[in-house]
Structure formats: structure tokens, C-alpha cells
Amino acid sequence: MSPGNDDKTGLLGRRLQAAQESAFVGREEELAVFNAALYGGGCSVLYVHGPGGIGKSALLRRFAAEAAAAGRPVSMVDGHTLEPSPAASEAEPVLHDADAVLLIDDFERVHGLEGWLRERFLPRVPMGALVVIAGRYRPDMRWQADPGWAGVLEVLPLRDLRAGDARALMDSCGVPAELREPLLAFAGGHPLALLLAAAVAVKDGGAGRRWTPDQDVVGTLLDQLVGELPSAAHRHALEICAHAYMTTEDLLRAVLPQDAGTLFSWLRRLPFVESCNLGLFPHDVVREVLEADLRWRDPEGYTVMHDRLHAHLAERVRTASDVDAPGAVAALLYLHRDNGVPADVPDRRDEGEFQEELLRQEDIGTLVRVATAAEGTASAGCAAFWASRQPEAFRLYRRAETGEPVAFSAWLRLAELDEQELTADPVVAAAWAHARATTPLRGGEPLAVNRLWALPPYRERSPLMEVIQWRVIAHCLRAERMAWSYIAIRHSDQAWVERLRHYGMLTISEQPRPGEDAYTLFAHDWRAVPAQAWLERMNQPLVAGPAGGPSAVTAELAVLSRAEFAEAVRKALRHLSRPDALAASPLTRTRLIAERAGQDPATALGDVLRHAIDDLRDDARSVKFYRALSVAFLRGAPTQELAAEQLGLPFTTYRRHLTAGIERVCAGLWHRELYGTSAPACRST
To answer: Where does the Orc1-like AAA ATPase domain start and stop, copy by copy (predicted)?
Structure first.
């Protein structure tokens, strides 16, 4: 190569170096640790670890520049070329020069040499020299378990850039203002994802605030961040980990029953998967690209995976302990983060920020103080009144760090109200009046009213409101035989208003004022849309696309009074042999029939009626009623006179048996409508 070409190569190299330096932003804390070690005030070995693309190589290049500026001899070794042979190790300057700095990059490529490095190579480095190791994997715990390395080794996890540094990086790439938010939403502070997305988005002249990564970006990031996977099962496990909020072995087993333990152990060792007390979770960018890739590559497989996770987590909401119920709701809602729900998904950074406690007698004074500061004396009076009537309905929320009480929430269950209760709280009175005027409570069906008192700094979009929201949804989904739920929201709390509307809660016209502020009451009839149907409505937009919402899917159930229900049963019995007439019965839209999912409603209604008649045969005291019903409706006697003749009974006796049998069937089916199909259909009295 001619001298002219060498000169051009050098110029290009300097230009590349300058571009790399201009793209380096942030990392002040990491540089401070390195400089402390560089000037003799810190460690001798610095171990940097983080997922692919997080900026380890860029950081090592900056370390090299800092060391060179300090007059220290620097050598950089790539994991590809590191050799554990005596001849190769003897040639390293760091073994012979107390001023030398050795930087080892891509250490994950030779991770098997970690023991040799720790036990044989590094102990020979003279004091004063500095070694930096950078790789994707955390160091072996034997480093930190060995007291000899205490004070000598510094472990430095490398994480995403801060928001300001991420914006500075986009500025260096010439990203226009309208592209910054969508790029940050996708890449967060991940340097490689930001640089790659910025390069593609800037070239796309039509990109704007609705920019999303194309499959070239997704595919490139998958190759760089995830790489080749051992098998299809490993890929599926990683996709589950990306879709769920937190992954436990139990959750993995629900979708991948075979080898769940082995796959969970593999997941927890991945460099881009972290762990906390709730389970495993991938780096945000890895999560995003895995989700985008699967939805594009295998939409049917994505739906199957989602539905299995949804069913598992919905069951967990129903079966979790009271303490764990809000967390179970949060995990379930996380599955719906892309279907138009306002930003209410869990944030790991906020875990444990607030503590939830049951109300104690000594907390009532605190409740009044918080309620007064939050909403005034009139509303505080309502809080004190209900705390004296239903103390078990209250939850107290404290800041974990300080123990400061910041909010109270009450879930008031009401089967009937006396005059004092109606006048004590306008919010509860408005809910009660609405229920009575719309579809009244039936026997054994309470309604519930949620009341909330939170100090002003913690209202609107805050981690506290998310925790309280999860508790309220848990109450709704775990309640037995609840008729109506009402959630009282002040007009100013728009974040709650958006969420509740998305969840299909309807506002009532009356706006009660327990003090100076008016409240909006969000109502839901859980008899018309039971918990399972509500969850299906929540799930439908994600599977079908973001359009619509919980109120846009599936028909509501009919909520009949006892008289209306009994009349519908009598009419259906008369039309038992006519499927077209049964299909028009309001009973086909009741909870009684809705629980027989997957069956034609008319067929299901006919089966329920026939079984209800047959059940009377098993009780000696009801056999006479069974015979009368069987002749009239199962065998279809043309007239009641002929039916009585077939049974050998006087007509008046037959009529008495038939009427009593119909009443038994009505009573049994009504009981099932209210309490579920596990209850016996008909009971003798």
C-alpha cells in the first residue's frame, strides 16, 4: 500500500474516532469510578457487565482515552484473542509495569477463562496497574465470596442511559424533535437501539410521531442482543418472558409444561434478563424486539401464547391471597399494555414504594386528618362515619421510606342501607338510588362503593394510584354474587377517569357533592357483565387489534327480577319442545345459561330445564311433582285433562302437583342464577 493510501487510512481512522467520541454521552458515574482507580484511589480490577449494545465497548474506548491522557500505557484485548497460555500472558505489559492499564472487551466470548483470570493471571499484576474486564455476564460469585478480592475488585453493572443523556445522543445523530418521543418510547436509554433506530428513522423522510421500528431494525437488534438460541423451546420461553410482566417457573410451566425448570434456569443466566423478588424480566429493548418479532412472524402463535398466559394470570387473581391479589391484577393488566390502556402498567422502580395496611382503631384519627387535607371536613366526616361502621373495608397506604400515611381507600359492601347511612354520605346515597332505579339488588346480592381519600401530591398518575387501582379491580374480580360496583372519582382526577372508561365502567348522571367538589360515579353491573366476561372484553382488543374497548365486545347478560325470572321459566317450560321459542327467551341471556359456555343458548336452556325437572325425581317428597311436570312438558300431553288421566289423578290434584312442581323448578333455577351452578337446582321444603 502506498504512503498516500496510508495517509488516507489514517485520516479516515481519525474521523471515525471523532464520530465515536461525539456519540459518547453520559456515564459520569462509571468514569468517576475508573478515574478513581486510575489515580490510585480505587480498585485494581474493574469488572463491567451489561447486555449487548449497552455501550461497554464505547465505555472502554473512553477509558483508554482517559488513561492515555494520564500518561499511562494502555493495551486493549478482545475476547476473541485472549489466550491463557504462559507465553501469551507473559507478553502482557500489565504484568511488568505498575503504570499499565489493560482493557479486556467481549469477555463473554471467553467466559470459561474466568477462573484462570481470577486465580492465575490477575494475582501476578503489580499493585498500581489497572485491569478492566467488560462482558455481558455478571462475574462469578466466587469473586465476591473471596475476602482477598474485597477492596480490590469493583463490579460495575452498566445500565441504560439516563433520559437526558439519551436525548443528547439523539441530538448527536441529528434526530428531529418530532422523532424523539417515539424513538425513546421504543429504545429507552439503550445506546445501540437508539443509534440504530435513529439512523433508520432519520433517513425515512415520512417518519413522524407515529414512527415504529421496521423489521430490519427489529431483526438487527435481535441478532445483536439475543443471537442464536439453543432450540425452539428456548425461544418460546424467552418470548413468554418478554410478554409477561414477571416470569416465574410456575408461570412458565402454565404455558410450557415440559422442561419448565430447565428453561427457567437458562433464562435467569441470560445477560439481558434480570431478577427481582417477583421473578425474571428482560431488558426493555429485548422485550420490545421479541414482542414485535413474534407478532409479525407468527401472529397466531402470539395469540395462543397470550391467551394461555391470560388464563393462568386470571386464575391467579381469583386464587391469590388477599395480600398478593393487587400484584396478581398488575401482572394480568400488563398483558394489555398495548391495547390502548392509559399508562398504568407496573414499574419495577416503584416496587415497595408504598405499603398497604388494614385499618386499625388507632388509625382513625390519621384517616380523618388525611381525608380533611385531601378533600375537606365534609368528606372527612364521611370517612369517619364508614370507618366506625365498616372498619374492615378500609386500607391505609404509607410511604415505605418514611412511614408517612398518604391515602385511605374503602370498599364498602352494602346489602341494605338505613336512614342514617343514606344521609351520612351523598356518594353512597347516589349509588344506592341508581341501583334501585336501574336493576335493583336481588336476594344475597350486595353492591359495593369504593371511596378514596389521597393527599394531593399522590393523585393523578402516580405509583400510589396504580396500587389502589389494582386493589379495587381485585375486589371486583374476586367478589362473590356482587350486583353493582361504584367507584367515586373527583372531577379533577382525570387519570382515573380515562382508565375507568377504558375498562368499560359507565358514568351515572347524578354527581354527588360530599363537600365542595363534585364526584363522578363509575358504575358496573357484575350480573350483566360478570368477571369472566369482563376479562374476555379486556382481552379481545389485544387479540383483534387496538380498536374498541371493553364496552365494544360481547352482549350483556339480562338481569331479571325474581318475578320476571319466574315468568320466563314458566313460558320456557311451555315451549320446551320448540327451540325457536327457547332462543327468544330472556333466560338465554342470564348468568344461569352464560355459565354453560360453548353451548347453543337455546339448547343449553332446554337442557337446564329438563335437568331441573329430572332432579325432582331423586327426592321421594318431590316425585309427584316430577310426574306432573314430566307428563306436561317432557312427554307433551296435549291437554291437562289427558295428563291427569295418564297419571290416574283427579284433575284438581294434578293441577296442584303441576303448580307446585313449577314453583320448585323456578325456585331452584333462581337459586342457581344468584349463587352459581354448584347449588342444587331444586330443594324440597
So the answer is: 24-70
